[in-house]
Known about the structure:
Elements: E1 6-11, E2 13-14, E3 17-18, E4 29-31, E5 34-38, H1 45-52, H2 56-62, E6 76-80, E7 83-84, E8 92-96, E9 101-106, E10 109-115, E11 118-119, E12 128-137, E13 141-142, H3 145-153, E14 161-162, E15 173-177, E16 183-185, E17 196-198, E18 202-203, H4 206-213, E19 221-225, E20 229-234, E21 240-243, H5 254-265, H6 273-282, E22 287-289, E23 315-317, E24 328-333
Parallel strand pairs: 4-23, 8-19, 11-17, 16-18
Antiparallel strand pairs: 1-20, 2-3, 4-7, 5-6, 5-24, 8-9, 9-10, 12-15, 12-19, 13-14, 15-16, 20-21, 21-22
Amino acid sequence: xxxxxxxxxxxxxxxxxxxxxxxxxxxxxxxxxxxxxxxxxxxxxxxxxxxxxxxxxxxxxxxxxxxxxxxxxxxxxxxxxxxxxxxxxxxxxxxxxxxxxxxxxxxxxxxxxxxxxxxxxxxxxxxxxxxxxxxxxxxxxxxxxxxxxxxxxxxxxxxxxxxxxxxxxxxxxxxxxxxxxxxxxxxxxxxxxxxxxxxxxxxxxxxxxxxxxxxxxxxxxxxxxxxxxxxxxxxxxxxxxxxxxxxxxxxxxxxxxxxxxxxxxxxxxxxxxxxxxxxxxxxxxxxxxxxxxxxxxxxxxxxxxxxxxxxxxxxxxxxxxxxxxxxxxxxxxxx
Length: 335
């Protein structure tokens, strides 16, 4: 008897063109879930948003919060942070810029998933295939001349070196990439996670940086992609769609991309196009049900898009586990 299978098809856009079908591949995971978070002292809607990879706007709407957002210890917040996993490598680290998510994969399966902060529009995180070139704890930040110039223009003190400690924006853990000047690291500003705030590096919550540091090795592959539009066809379950903002303004037409995926994969009749249009318009960055179940779907429908025929169960990795850094989660559910 076959096990349930998950096929995730993503459209990665560069400029105004959609990449070839060979750049889409099978995925075996969905991360996140729905749960209740108990607010602790010092929590803000911004810090909770950063910790769980869901926007403040959605948290406020789902919990009927009005401005100014005032949270009190003991308040309970509903959090739903389901994300689809665009698999582009069998082992290593996958980062999808529009999602603001980092996935660690082993044997083509998700081991861990973390929200990240990435490069601002004027300091974009590069895409491509790289590898972990270095690992270093308590790294001194050698401030690049370009950032020194930015400090000068902003009228701030010009720093050339920042030693380890609370003022170091690299945090405690540094994982340097094979592209010079870029790396995956912690931060001294955890509320900045899940935003486009860096000078191109990949920034993690301090606890996540520590966890990831212990799982990476030198020469581990790192692939960074730009895939705003994601669709998952799960056997005998509703189709999931995730539309993320076109953070670098690369001319992504989200609804057209959804139509292209559906046409290529024979899903046009299975998608609820009213819901799909709504998701394309709102770009919430979360996976939502947007179609009918696809009974008995086989994994060989598009050889350019499917990297193998092995069937795997849907892997739901609960991002709510990240709450160890603050708060408690109760009444958890993977759906």
